Fold this sequence. Notes:
By secondary structure, this protein is α+β, with helices and mostly antiparallel strands. Among the domains are: 141 residues, Hypothetical protein af1432 (Orthogonal Bundle); 150 residues, no CATH class; 75 residues, 2-Layer Sandwich (Alpha-Beta Plaits), CATH 3.30.70.260. 50% of the residues lie in helices and 16% in strands. Strands 1, 2, 3, 4, 5 and 6 form a six-stranded mixed sheet that branches. The longest helix has 33 residues. The termini are far apart. The relative contact order is 0.05.
Amino acid sequence: MDVFGALRDEINQYLSHEQVAVIERSYLFAKKAHETQFRYTGEPYITHPVAVAIILAQMRMDPQSIMAAILHDVVEDTPVEHNDIVNEFGKEVADLVDGVTKLTQIHFENYAQAQAENFRKMVMAMASDIRVILVKLADRLHNMRTLHGLPPEKRRRISQETLEIFAPIANRLGMHTFRVELEDLGFASFYPMRYKILRSAVAKARGNRQEIMQMINDQIRDAIKKNNISSATLTSRNKHLYSIYNKMHEKHLSFSEIMDVYGFRVIVEKVDTCYRILGILHNLYKPIAQRFKDYIAIPKANGYQSLHTTLFGPYGVPIEVQIRTEEMHKMAENGIAAHWLYKSEKKVFHEAQSRAREWLKGILEMDKSSRNSLEFIEDVKIDLFPDEVYVFTPRGEIIELPAGATSIDFAYAIHSDIGNSCVAARLDKRLSPLSTPLVSGQQVEVITAPGARPNSAWLNFVVTGKARSKIKHYLKKQQREESAELGSRLLEKALHAYGLQLDHLPDEMIEAVVSISQVDSLHHLYEEIGIGNRPALLVAKQFAKALDEVTKHETTEIEAPQPLIIKGTEGFVLNFANCCSPIPGDQIAGLIKIGQGIEVHMIHCAQVEKYHRHPEKYVPLLWEEDIEGDFSVNLKVHLVNRRGSLATLALAISEGESNIEHIKAQESDRHHFNVDVTISVKNRRHLARVLRKMRKRKDIIRVVRHKPLVETHA
């Protein structure tokens, strides 16, 4: 069986005899390496890498990419090593192979982690050589074409991965042909019944549309001919199955609503002719307002260019028309692959490559800001769906953002520092909430302030991967700094109990304890203590033990630990317990929670009592005298059940200069009901003022603060 024959015929059309000979040598090398291996379909394994190489050859890829496709599984699945490929075919081919080779030597906890790490590795390789993703996409396309040989569970897993990652990547790189086939194959395998039903319905609907399609076709052709444009090519355009399914699923449209739209495409020679055709069509049929998009003037993120317009056709049927030049069409179908496919110096093809590189640059920034590969892959998935809005800076520059993007996304798109210090935004010169979704054509002005910082609530509404990763990175860095500051104070208090001071201990001893603790530095040790991963008391004990060994005598008896002063500026590493909601003026204690820092409770809270037998997790606390801020407190109110009583309660709280954070009312009997209300106060004195205001109201029978006390056992 001449497996190489079909590939030889393809590459002979555009490569030299010497290049074909080297590719054939790589085929013989791979054939020998895979000679004992077979696919699930029963075919020799070598048929797969050759089929991948044929896909790339049809794209007119260079010899190195073809060889990488043939060799792409030898390192992963055979004893062949990276250096063997370097020696035989050179470093360039070996690096391409390495870029698509999975990490098989490392043990991962689960498939999701393995998938994320492999994706991360591939993205890193893509950033240095864009051909890596073309080899990977061709590999995935052939795997999807031959998916029938795999067990059902594996088929579903690979299909889901294709729909979530590889088809969106093809789309992001402008490779429409690849994307459509990947999506339809993934859809057929992941939702086989839905695919069959939809395919049957589409075939039936298209049969019923032929007459009206022909009428529209004839009318458009006549109109173009009357205006003496001879070079235009008109074709009908059918939506592929997965795009129909997606529109039905995501936009909650019926099948008939999607299929009632008739699609056409006009391809011309020059850009100005595109606009002439647009004028002809708008004279022929009435255009639908707000349904015209000029992607020629403002291309999509993946380099796509075209004019889109929607018209009222014969009998009122909607007609969607795309108008583009031949180069734009090649770009739309092939994306970054057009560079190799057409061997042209045309600007449009080079722009596609530069856009891809800009996108990859942004992906690398996300990687630096992500805590791990799972977080990284989630951020990238968000960034892979490029339905765009186009907004303007105050200087008139166009900024391209995903649909649903907010002023925060805009700020981070300009610069990370602007995003980090953003406090407000003006949309078309009017102040608007930072969470407002942007609309194409708006002018966006970001207002910054020195000392401002990102808010964790922003993660609830930002949509770009860059904004999300930068906010997480800043908050993580801030948490580390706050953890280190709190950890330093906790350790000083714990050392004081042993009669020690960190400043007076020799550097060698500090380095020894840091080494024993298996952390990088003293600062890292502070972080671990502050976040609750390492009890300060046990670290202080290690210092005391190290001092004993140096001085050859035991340290003095441990003193009672001194309270830690709560300033209110500790940030993420200090949390106030919801069970008792302590406020300044209450007696308080802290419980060290792993990964969370200190949780502040009232000293008589039932939760605190449970920790008395674990001194390493218990921290005595005191409020700083002039502490400022708003603190939540829970109240239980017994009210008369009549109209306006809840308004009376709200008015009393407002008169006490407090705000309601949460309220829940429940009827106790016909004449009364109970209200659980959470309000914000400054301290106990402020709370007392609010309570006095409430108790003066006739409708309020009783009001008490909710405080869970120590559990008693008979």
